[in-house]
Amino acid sequence: MKAGFIGCGKMGSALIQGVLAAKICEPKDVQVYDSAVEAAEILGTESGIRVAAGNRELVANSDVILLCVKPEDALHALAEAGRELEGKLLISIAAGITIASLQEAAGAGCRVVRVMPNTAALVQKGATAYAAGAGVSGKDIAVVEQIFTSVGRAFEVNEALLDAVTGLSGSGPAYVYLFVEALSDGGVQMGLPRDLALKLAVQTVAGAAEMLTETMMHPAVLREMVTSPAGTTIAGLAEMERGRLRSTVMDAVKAATLRARELGGGDEGA
Ligand SMILES: NC(=O)c1ccc[n+]([C@@H]2O[C@H](COP(=O)([O-])OP(=O)(O)OC[C@H]3O[C@@H](n4cnc5c(N)ncnc54)[C@H](OP(=O)(O)O)[C@@H]3O)[C@@H](O)[C@H]2O)c1
């Protein structure tokens, strides 16, 4: 498979690294074009991938195109590729750009998949959801799965759910960072040195996430297992319930989902 990356900023370069590390493609079969030419050339030299002279050349020499530019640049980048997109698989990670807009820009003969990854793809722990457009085959879906499982986990959804995905896993790392800060500040308030409090908070969140992944148990079951009657944990949890932590987090996902819908133009497909 020949893969072409339009844009090699934060997400594009993380995906290129994932694809190469998982040996989905040989470096010689991966091409990149970025309008920040120097960034593409450095990446090319470091990883052995080819650097195209422009988007038209890149698309002409690729079977699968990953569109990894900012949403406001996405349709322009496709226009630069022109009719070369005919018969190709286009995978876009541009937030909020609908399959319908991508299809219109890429032409009816292009197979389009819209993807919402998250920033943890940079450390191969990404949470990704994707939606396929008309004419996308099972083989195309397998390619999408292969690429995004190389940087974490991937799930297929209906496009109408992608705004909610944005509100949950797209924005989710920031919610967790805020929680870690709060956990750490709580320790500082009770006398722990700041650097120790932060290290303990980070490791606690990482450990809890690992427990959930490894045991595949429901979080409520794991929580009950560590909450003894009249103990310390129930005292802490009671305070969280009083502060409406649960409904605040639910409202945060709702607010981010509605904002994603707004940015996507209120289109139900966005
Ligand atoms: N970062 C995240 O956590 C995250 C999460 C989910 C989805 N996404 C999506 O991922 C996409 C990329 O985000 P990012 O953070 O990786 O952006 P980024 O770091 O800004 O990288 C985008 C790169 O594309 C280049 N570019 C702009 N127009 C181009 C064109 N016509 N042809 C080729 N290259 C072009 C930019 O160059 P210039 O600087 O010269 O413009 C830049 O180097 C966005 O659409 C975003 O919605 C990101």
Feature tags:
2 domains, alpha/beta, ProC C-terminal domain-like fold, eight-stranded mixed beta sheet, Rossmann fold, binds NADP nicotinamide-adenine-dinucleotide phosphate, single chain, 270 residues
Description:
With 270 residues, the protein is an alpha/beta fold. It has two domains: 3-158, NAD(P)-binding Rossmann-like Domain (Rossmann fold); 170-263, ProC C-terminal domain-like (ProC C-terminal domain-like fold). 54% of the residues lie in helices and 13% in strands. The protein is built from twelve helices and eight strands. The protein has helices at 10-21, 37-47, 55-60, 71-81, 99-106, 138-149, 162-170, 172-189, 194-215, 219-225, 232-242, 245-263; strands at 3-6, 30-33, 50-51, 64-67, 89-92, 111-116, 126-132, 152-156. The protein has an eight-stranded mixed beta sheet, sandwiched between helices. Strand 5 (89-92), helix 5 (99-106) and strand 6 (111-116) form a beta-alpha-beta unit. NADP nicotinamide-adenine-dinucleotide phosphate binds at residues 6-7, 9-12, 33-36, 39, 55, 68-71, 73, 76-77, 80, 93-95, 117-119, 170.
